[in-house]
Specification:
The chain has about 55 residues and is an all-alpha fold. It has 3 helices and no strands.
């Protein structure tokens, strides 16, 4: 059985506000994680929208 503590620790790792693309810390990372499901900052999101390669 999964302990509640294990689930909470995994959830906290996702909300560390560090972008997967540029590795910088930004507040918009957690916002984009909720909206899109990707851990990217606002700057990387715009660059991925303009240059989707």
């Amino acid at each position: 059985m999964i302990e509640d503590n294990d689930i909470l620790e995994e959830d906290l790792k996702d909300l560390d506000n560090i972008c997967d693309e540029c590795k910088n810390e930004d507040e918009s990372v957690s916002q984009n994680l909720i909206l899109t499901g990707f851990k990217i900052c606002k700057s990387c999101r715009v660059s991925k929208t303009i240059f989707p390669i």
